[in-house]
């Protein structure tokens, strides 16, 4: 571990490991398998990169994300750890050269796409190399219960059998329910692994759900108020991505687009422009997801509801990777749920898979309607203890008076019970509204005592009330294309008069103002320009040189010596030797007023 801590300091510029990192690193270096579930920004990559640098031989990193491979390879080479990748972007000549260099022991880490593991040539290469350690990133892809199942991941355990002696195997993911964790251990055949789950709360993120907004007007106002910030806007379909991007460009915003309908060259060019801050906003489908290792994304806006909580939290987690404040805003509209259901139906999964996806979508809808702390909802969704309310999200900052809606809730629960718990939200709302509807009459529901029980309210408001009651755990929806309402024990307690129900109706959200940034803003801009000049010269993304958070700390500390600068987080000896003197001179000139 002493060597690992030295690598952490000299290569990565950190004095100590973060929560969970040391336990995983020490376990791996002791020869134990491991599974690490750590939220985006918690430092998962350090957990396998440090052991890889400390071990003799080559570490194999399995990752499905071609874009992330390039980013991490660039970043590791900047720290002085020789790294490369094998994926479909390489030409035959490049592949031949890469295989020869790997065989010659030129690299400490080799990133590989899971599909490449099935290549006969790659299998022969594995048999010739000394591979003490294999890290599997985005390990949730091995589970059919996960949100992003990839069949190619099922071959990983077979390929591991080609490596002699058996390597240490470690699996990492940002999000996994208990069921997915057990799938990971079983499918990758982890042997008595070290298990670390560091928690899902992100203290620097502000989560918000905005309902009923004019989405385009809101988006225009938001991005105009943050002209210097980088952000991502996610949309459900390619057509919406094109529409939103065109709208922003017409407003004079430097926006790009990313979806699977674009050719590979255009996607790569757009991604590179975003990484180099030449584009301030990327509008994208979930094809532009986990593989973006850009540290200074200040906000993520979901223009439509995503298909599940796992996808949402991973995408929202693109904000604030540097530890600085980030905003995650979801613009909710009921019709977006229908879009997601259509995409599920058009998908290639079998009926069992679709049932899982419908259940996952219901969890996302509940998130949009809950009146409890949004951070707490997510933490509980993944099976962790509730913890404290975050105090930052749109639920926590809604300061309106809480209303007693027990009577209305009892009417809803009574109606669901009298309809034999066999119908969905829309039909229930029609009965409570007292709608003159053919289907209501077909089932004889106009004869129920609860028919018209909420006739003073609009049908859409009744639907909203029901959704909130589901989100707060009083009812459940079955996992199917046409979900049915069922009552829980909590609802029965309300019907019996043992419990009351309190709610805020349709909370609105205001965009949280950006926290005042620390340090000298003009110096920060000078340091950014200096970083950009190095990045352009070396053709690497700026954040691979120094993160924004490191530049912020330089602005606060304003170091004058090598020793001072090496005390700044994110600056190791290797990077100081390459860039340190130039940055010190920039700080010195600024202090002198030049």
Automatic annotation (TrEMBL):
<dbReference type="Pfam" id="PF16124">
    <property type="entry name" value="RecQ_Zn_bind"/>
</dbReference>
<dbReference type="InterPro" id="IPR018982">
    <property type="entry name" value="RQC_domain"/>
</dbReference>
<dbReference type="Pfam" id="PF00271">
    <property type="entry name" value="Helicase_C"/>
</dbReference>
<dbReference type="GO" id="GO:0009378">
    <property type="term" value="F:four-way junction helicase activity"/>
</dbReference>
<dbReference type="GO" id="GO:0003677">
    <property type="term" value="F:DNA binding"/>
</dbReference>
<dbReference type="InterPro" id="IPR004589">
    <property type="entry name" value="DNA_helicase_ATP-dep_RecQ"/>
</dbReference>
<keyword id="KW-0067">ATP-binding</keyword>
<dbReference type="GO" id="GO:0005524">
    <property type="term" value="F:ATP binding"/>
</dbReference>
<dbReference type="GO" id="GO:0006260">
    <property type="term" value="P:DNA replication"/>
</dbReference>
<dbReference type="GO" id="GO:0016787">
    <property type="term" value="F:hydrolase activity"/>
</dbReference>
<dbReference type="GO" id="GO:0043138">
    <property type="term" value="F:3'-5' DNA helicase activity"/>
</dbReference>
<keyword id="KW-0413">Isomerase</keyword>
<feature type="domain" description="HRDC">
    <location>
        <begin position="517"/>
        <end position="594"/>
    </location>
</feature>
<keyword id="KW-0479">Metal-binding</keyword>
<dbReference type="InterPro" id="IPR032284">
    <property type="entry name" value="RecQ_Zn-bd"/>
</dbReference>
<keyword id="KW-0238">DNA-binding</keyword>
<keyword id="KW-0233">DNA recombination</keyword>
<comment type="similarity">
    <text>Belongs to the helicase family. RecQ subfamily.</text>
</comment>
<dbReference type="InterPro" id="IPR001650">
    <property type="entry name" value="Helicase_C-like"/>
</dbReference>
<dbReference type="Pfam" id="PF00570">
    <property type="entry name" value="HRDC"/>
</dbReference>
<dbReference type="GO" id="GO:0046872">
    <property type="term" value="F:metal ion binding"/>
</dbReference>
<dbReference type="InterPro" id="IPR002121">
    <property type="entry name" value="HRDC_dom"/>
</dbReference>
<dbReference type="GO" id="GO:0005737">
    <property type="term" value="C:cytoplasm"/>
</dbReference>
<feature type="domain" description="Helicase C-terminal">
    <location>
        <begin position="218"/>
        <end position="362"/>
    </location>
</feature>
<keyword id="KW-0227">DNA damage</keyword>
<dbReference type="InterPro" id="IPR027417">
    <property type="entry name" value="P-loop_NTPase"/>
</dbReference>
<dbReference type="InterPro" id="IPR006293">
    <property type="entry name" value="DNA_helicase_ATP-dep_RecQ_bac"/>
</dbReference>
<dbReference type="GO" id="GO:0006281">
    <property type="term" value="P:DNA repair"/>
</dbReference>
<protein>
    <recommendedName>
        <fullName>DNA helicase RecQ</fullName>
        <ecNumber>5.6.2.4</ecNumber>
    </recommendedName>
</protein>
<dbReference type="GO" id="GO:0030894">
    <property type="term" value="C:replisome"/>
</dbReference>
<keyword id="KW-0234">DNA repair</keyword>
<keyword id="KW-0547">Nucleotide-binding</keyword>
<dbReference type="InterPro" id="IPR044876">
    <property type="entry name" value="HRDC_dom_sf"/>
</dbReference>
<dbReference type="InterPro" id="IPR011545">
    <property type="entry name" value="DEAD/DEAH_box_helicase_dom"/>
</dbReference>
<dbReference type="Pfam" id="PF09382">
    <property type="entry name" value="RQC"/>
</dbReference>
<keyword id="KW-0347">Helicase</keyword>
<feature type="domain" description="Helicase ATP-binding">
    <location>
        <begin position="25"/>
        <end position="194"/>
    </location>
</feature>
<dbReference type="GO" id="GO:0009432">
    <property type="term" value="P:SOS response"/>
</dbReference>
<keyword id="KW-0378">Hydrolase</keyword>
<dbReference type="GO" id="GO:0006310">
    <property type="term" value="P:DNA recombination"/>
</dbReference>
<dbReference type="InterPro" id="IPR036390">
    <property type="entry name" value="WH_DNA-bd_sf"/>
</dbReference>
<dbReference type="GO" id="GO:0043590">
    <property type="term" value="C:bacterial nucleoid"/>
</dbReference>
